[in-house]
Amino acid sequence: MMLTTGSEQHRVRAIGRGVLCFGILSYTGAVSVGVYWRGTTTVLLMAIALGLCLPWLFAHRYPLRSFAVMSAAGTVQLIEGFGPIPANLMLLAGVYAVAAHAPRRAALLCAAAVVAGAVIAAIRWGETFAASAVPLSAIGTTTVAVWLWGTHTALRRVHDETLRTRADQLEREQDHLAQIAAAEERARIARDLHDVISHSLAGILTMSEGTLRSSPELAEEHKNSLRMINTHCRDSLSEFRKLLKLLRDEPADMTRTSPVVSNLEFLVESAASDTLATDLTVEGRHCELPPTVQEAVYRIVQESLTNVRKHAGTSVTKVTASVDVTTENVKVEVSDDGAGSAAEAGATQCTTDGFGLLGMRERVDSLRGTLFAGSPPAGGFVVRATIPLSSDERRSNNRYVRTRNN
After folding, report:
1. Considering the entire predicted model, what is its pTM?
2. Cα dist from 25 to 28, 48, 87, whole Å
């Protein structure tokens, strides 16, 4: 089974160290009881074994201190004249820990100390050179091998940390380059939008205002239409400038808020004309809705009214808009009484040639809602959206309902 987290790896390593120490101590206890059972002498020998084994449990964090304690236990063993015991193998494990987690010079000194201790032990135990040459050679070779193994572990860890550092640095650089590229692309889009749309809107506003000033003989109906054009152009230019500031990462004018549900009355009334009647119904506590939901409701109604003016033609005589805010969701519906086929044709044209319905659907999807746009059996065309409210928004609406009921 593969380990997926660093905490699991540390846990398994800790268990492995504990099992090894327990096994060495158990074997040492069995040997000491069978060979050195002399009352307090055996107790002292087990204390030496503990001094050789237990510090290794913490050698990965405190390699030099642990090895110092293990060396002190080995020194006591030499002074007391005890022969070799299984726990002496832990000195090699201590050399590995120092080589893997401590400076290289300290690891060399620790390895030399183990070899020197083995030589002193051979002299202390009265072994001849011929009898001790092979064991000392084996101990020296094993010590060097353990030191090389620990050094390789340390180098591999440094290499892995270097690779991780480089990977993190490359990732940060890629993110930075992506942010720069995105900022440059937003700036290019902002320039293109300003050069095309902003100039066009400013030209329309200039011409309509000039027509009002230069043609006082116009009928009042035509003057009202021109005044409405002026109002829409000014509002569009103001929102467009705010959008350009967002694209350029400039601080936008926060005194001008996003559209809210309370603005729908003016929007629906401005869409009415001599040949088109409009009606708006708003139910529920819409003022408690978050700005994103209120803006989505406003844009859905706005786009639906625009589609009616652009695509429905003279077959539409009435447009009805309704907003119903409950404790669970917000329902928005805009319908007209036009011919079903004409409405479908208008929706198809809007879907293929423009981005009105696509933008509405994306806006509703971002709020985890649903959107339907099509012709009902009775005819006409309807846009129906349902936007769910989050738990915090539902609690806010519930508090309002309880207050009203009390």
Report:
1. 0.50
2. 5, 10, 7
**Number of structural domains, the chain?**
3
pLDDT score for 260: 80
**Could you tell me which residues are beta bridge partners of residue 325?**
330
In DSSP terms, which residues pair with 333 in a beta bridge? 322, 384
Pair (325, 227) in one structural domain:
no
Of the candidates 112, 88, 110, 83, the residue with the CA atom closest to the CA atom of residue 99: 110
**Degrees (nearest 5) of the Cα angle 403, 405, 406?**
65
One domain for residues 236 and 308: no
Q: Is residue 147 part of a domain?
A: no
Q: Is residue 137 part of a domain?
A: no
Residues 108 and 230 grouped into a single domain: no
> Can you spell out the DSSP letters for 98-120?
HHHHS-HHHHHHHHHHHHHHHHH
Taking Cα atoms as reference points, which of 107, 132, 129 lies closest to residue 118? 132
Are the beta carbons of 378 and 337 closer than 8 angstroms?
no
Domain region containing 106: 6-126
pLDDT tens digits, one per residue of 275-311: 788 899 999 888 888 888 998 999 999 889 888 877 6
**89, 91, 94, 100: CA torsion to nearest 10:** -80
Comparing 5-9, 177-181, 187-191, 345-349, which segment has the lowest mean pLDDT? 345-349
Both 236 and 269 in one domain: the answer is no
Q: Are residues 239 and 265 in the same domain?
A: no
Answer with the one of 126, 142, 157 that is the final residue of a domain: 126
337 is a domain residue:
yes
**Looking at the structure, do residues 234 and 266 belong to the same domain, yes or no?**
no
The contacts of residue 208 (CB under 8 Å, 6+ apart) are: 226, 229, 230, 233
- Looking at the fold, whether 112 and 234 belong to one and the same domain comes out as no
- Asked if residues 337 and 317 have their Cβ atoms less than 8 Å apart, the reply is yes
Q: What is the pLDDT of residues 123-176, one digit of tens each?
A: 776 666 666 677 778 888 888 999 999 999 999 989 999 999 999 999 999 999
Question: What pLDDT digit, counting tens, does each position of 32-74 carry?
Answer: 656 555 667 778 888 888 888 888 888 888 899 999 999 999 8
In a domain, 252, yes or no: no
Identify the pLDDT of residue 164. Answer: 92
Number of helices and strands (H, E) in the chain? Answer: 13, 5
Give the chain's mean pLDDT: 81
